[in-house]
Amino acid sequence: MVQSDYASTGISLPPAGALRWIKAPVADLAVTLLFAIVVVMQIAHHEMWRDEIHSWGLVLASPSLSDLFANLRYTGHPGLWYLLLWAAAWFTDSPYTVQVIHAAISVVLIGLIGLSSPFSRLEKLLLLCSYFVLFEYTVVSRNYGIGMVLALVYAQCRATGPERLYLNGFLLGLLANTNLFGLVLSAAFAAELALHTLLSRRGSLRAAIAPLLRGAAFYVPLAALAAATIWPAPDISWRSTGEPFTATWDLMRLAAVVAHNVASMLPIDALDYWLADPPAQPRPAGGLSLTGPGVLLSALPLLLIAYASIFKDNRRLLIIPGLTLIGSIAVGQLIYSGSIRHWGINFVAFVAALWVQRSWRPEQSPVALGLLGISAFAGIAISIQQASITFSEAGPTARWIRDNGLQDHALIATPDTMVAPVAVYLGKPAYYLDCSCIDDYMFYHNRRDPFHKSQIPARLARAVEELKGRPMLFVTSDALTPAQLDEIVRYGIGTKMLAEFSNAGTDENYYVYRVTGAVASTPAGDGSG
Q1: Sign of the C-alpha dihedral, residues 241, 247, 248, 253?
Q2: pTM of the entire predicted model
Q3: Which of 34, 106, 200, 377 gets the most CB atoms within 10 Å of its CB?
């Protein structure tokens, strides 16, 4: 048995988590299997959204590892998730590989919670129903799910073997390479582990520093690799995200960022996260009052009191959710305000810290149950909602184009961020009006920054000139207005809407036009620079 930090309590640790898989009660096995089936069914029903399918386009456009890491510098993400996809891309070009790999990760996450966690059956049930486990980090195929898996594996290793610093440092290094917020969480974990190591070797500073260096030997190089990969390319586009450090002293933004981070722990309006109101029921202006920044800001002291209550006997563990919250707020204020998938790192930090504490102590916290219960409500609510809503029309649009024998048409598209998924599903490049260029995937280069939707008619005319002699389709996320159609006609171009896909619960709806006609030369005044 390995003793916890708090050896004076006389509490010994349970067997390593791997043994629980063998000894798991039939009820836990049944619950785990049920949730695994539910999540896999949700993934099968889920149409991938632009950030999900973007990762596949990027790896297909990266024939070598050097290409992959060069392309990642235009995304703001480190490479672990993309490495998995890149390896799979050697065997298949199907975009659904993304969901297959993520489904496997999701099943591992559910298995860790259901079969290997130190939680009671009620805690496991609430955690499996939570918003991030039942939907955001399992159904949506991004790099956040693998981050939560690594965080929980580390929590088990931290609880049962804090002295295994090589292993712990390696796990934290992998976590740092999942996403920017995973890097923040890994730093919080590393700070708590370093403090424990220092305090547990009070007799000699040298004796305390030596083991820290062992852990750092793995963690620091991997964290540095993550930071280098995240570091933006000089010619990256900031049009979609806003340039970092431009709103550093904006107090209104800070209030919103803090409120959003609180929302990750108190997701009381899960139905609002993904613009997921049915088209016939538009969202009320301003959203629901329960999720207003003022209400969430006022809940921050209550959340901090809840943390203090839950970890009152193991206060050092407060370092993990505390530093994660501070780091997440700093990233949101300085770099990118983000959305629920980013802020969810606070939930992961809370669950990981709770995992460590429950490995040491059998007592169940009513306050922790309350927080898990709120997230479970959100997870169940959005899962029910998503069952009847199309998440994105990108896949259906691409399938319609292929089914109607139009896949060989040159594809013209705008806006690039929203329409690129259609091209990736079709496995072909597109001519993006945003940059007046052909790309294999959504390439965040600053050549797209000067574009404005008022330039669509002129840039469409330019595209027709450059692609002349080929049949063409124009795909856009907004139907062309009468004024735009009139201007397009003045360029000598004909358009005919062939199909409309407008049932998505997000903003990924599409209109497909056949484009005919030609212009003698590139029109002046297209604003392309």
Answers
A1: negative
A2: 0.91
A3: 106
